[in-house]
Design brief:
heterodimer; A: Histone, subunit A; B: Arc Repressor Mutant, subunit A; 3 domains; binds zinc ion
């Protein structure tokens, strides 16, 4: 499988990253190398093996009771964010709420 | 020329319901609504590095109950996946959801056949996920304000088959779903707190003989937060799709938003970044393995679903569909009804009184039935007095007002205030002749042929007896006495 410059650009957009041309080419090479390395797994015959979705497959149902535990981090969190307005965290305005997901 | 009339609306819904838990889906933060912004937060729901989610068993249980209430099959094995997208109200950069192995699949919700909007609406899947935070715009519009209190609140997402055929039916479906989820305790479904949000997938389908179906492209209208807006947005899309077909335009598959004020949907214009969530299993969360016996156990303790209750009220108690629907729509009133009947009252009379007088007093006082001193035993006794014709309907209403406020038994009130019906003709004759003597003009009018004067005189008798006389008997006696001129 060969990864194209366009695919790198698309992944960068999804990750909200801006790449310069030289960066895009360098990262394309890196991703290509990673895919080739991981691609060796394709050589293994897995027809008879059930897919494993999780490394903790044997520890199913790690659950907690529905109990409220106050973290106590609220104020410290608000002190540490770069921008806030009273108790709200603020970011530059987003124009089109909900257009990129939410369901 | 294409005939738009040959098309029918095809609507599928994706409903997000906040589960009725105390704590969030993967952390111990409270789900309380209305706390000051960014109070109910912790490293897990803020997505801080090194934090690890742990699944809330209460949310899993409620998800199982929701699924079973909808007749869905709870899978013995399901797992959580990461739905990746960047948005400021989602601090982790992904939402934990379920995708390839949801909690439950299949099922249906049956709608009663009212105004042609009945039918069986299939359910594709029920899965668990977490809510995002809330973003609002600041007054100067220069920035976005973020509150992460809702971030991580447990949700069930319910996805229907595209079986809904009209905007009105979409609304009916949501009303029935809300009633069901409330009764089985899955969610309070407080709309004003955003506990139910709905995406509408809309298109038109035409089925011609001998050919495959022809469809318009699907519009996905996102994030509607009231039943009314679901209906209105669907009506708008119906009109838009029909107009496009009439003009021969080809619509695009797109995400749209609803503008409540203008009553229109508009394109989200984000095609160049079409959804690409790159789901993959969340390595932080072990799979859920649900034993069918455990799901059965939870389902076994489930209260009767609204539709089953409506059918039973109609079959067992002979109620009209309307009365059954009104009672079942208010579970505490439905319980009150059943208890009143179990105290020996006639079911129809109990239904009539509960949907009438009882509901009216509750509405007027703003109280819940559980908070007033009147009990099913009170109502049953009152109805027994009525049935035995010991009190008139009018007196019964007055007694109920007293019962409602004081909790005194009806029989005690009737005796204390001498409210028993006057059914002794001799006693009534005396009262009637006194009324005739006091109202000679009305008596003369009647005698001269004005029949409606009798109503005035009956009213006077009822007034003098504080409603204790039987109006029919009074009517007969009046006519008799006026005719004979005595
Ligand atoms: Zn938390």
């Amino acid at each position: 499988m060969r990864i194209s410059s366009d695919q790198v650009e698309r992944i960068a957009q999804l990750a909200r990253l801006h790449l310069e041309d030289d960066e895009r080419e360098r990262i394309r090479g890196d991703l290509q190398g990673i895919l080739e390395h991981v691609g060796r797994l394709d050589e293994i015959d897995v027809d008879e093996i059930d897919p494993m979705h999780n490394p903790a497959e044997s520890d199913a149902n790690v659950l907690r009771d529905d109990i409220v535990v106050e973290s106590g981090v609220s104020d410290g969190f608000l002190e540490s964010v770069p921008r806030r307005d009273d108790r709200y965290v603020t970011t530059p305005r987003f124009v089109d709420p909900g257009s990129d997901g939410h369901g | 020329m294409i005939d738009p009339g040959a098309y029918r609306a095809t609507i599928g819904l994706e409903i997000h319901v906040a589960l009725n838990t105390r704590s969030k889906m993967f952390c111990g933060c409270s789900t309380d609504f209305g706390a000051p912004p960014n109070t109910n937060v912790c490293p897990v729901c803020l997505g801080l590095p090194g934090s690890l989610p742990v699944t809330n068993s209460g949310a899993v249980n409620l998800g199982i109950i929701a699924a079973r209430a909808l007749g869905s099959q709870v899978r013995t094995r399901s797992h959580f996946e990461r739905k990746n997208y960047h948005y400021p109200d989602l601090p982790k950069g992904y939402q934990i959801s379920q995708y390839s192995a949801p909690l439950a699949v299949g099922g249906e919700l049956v709608l009663d056949d009212v105004e042609g909007e009945g039918g069986r609406i299939g359910i594709i899947r029920v899965h668990l996920e977490e809510d995002a935070g809330k973003s609002t715009h600041s007054a100067d519009k220069g920035s976005t304000l973020l509150d992460f209190n809702r971030c991580g609140v447990p949700l069930a997402e319910i996805v229907t088959e595209p079986h809904i055929q009209s905007p009105g039916q979409a609304r009916r479906f949501l009303e029935e779903l809300r009633a069901l989820l409330r009764v089985v305790g899955v969610s309070e479904v407080r709309m004003e707190e955003g506990e139910l949000r709905c995406d509408v997938n809309f298109n038109l389908v035409r089925c011609d003989e001998g050919e495959g179906p022809v469809r318009t492209e699907i519009s996905e209208v996102k994030n509607l937060n009231s039943f009314r807006s679901v209906q209105r947005a669907s009506e708008y899309e119906l009109k838009r799709h029909v107009e496009a077909v009439s003009r021969g335009d080809v619509l695009e598959h797109e995400t749209r938003h609803w503008d409540e004020e203008r009553g229109v949907t508009y394109s989200a214009r984000s095609k160049e970044m079409a959804h690409d969530y790159r789901y993959f299993p969340d390595p932080d969360l072990p799979p859920l393995v649900i034993d069918p016996g455990y799901a059965d156990h939870l389902a076994g303790g489930m209260p009767e679903p609204p539709r089953a209750k409506r059918i039973r009220f109609a079959d067992e108690f002979g109620l009209s569909r309307y009365d059954a629907a009104v009672l079942v729509a208010d579970p505490p009133l439905a319980d009150f009804f059943e208890e009143t009947v179990s105290h020996g009252a006639s079911a129809r009379a109990a239904a009539r009184w509960i949907t009438g007088e009882v509901a009216a007093h509750l509405n007027a006082s703003g109280a819940a039935i559980s908070d007033v001193p009147a009990s099913p035993a009170h109502l049953a006794e009152l109805l027994e007095l009525l049935e035995a014709e010991q009190i008139s309907e009018k007196v019964a209403k007055r007694v109920w007002r007293d019962v409602f406020e004081s909790g005194t038994m009806p029989r005690v009130i009737v005796e204390r205030e001498c409210l028993a019906k006057i059914d002794d003709p001799e006693e009534l004759r005396d009262i009637v002749s006194a009324v005739i003597a006091e109202n000679p003009d009305a008596a003369a009018e009647y005698s001269s042929g004005k029949d409606r004067a009798i109503g005035y005189l009956v009213g006077k008798v009822m007034e003098d007896t504080r409603g204790r006389a039987d109006p029919r008997l009074v009517n007969d006696i009046l006519r008799d006495m006026l005719r004979s001129g005595s």
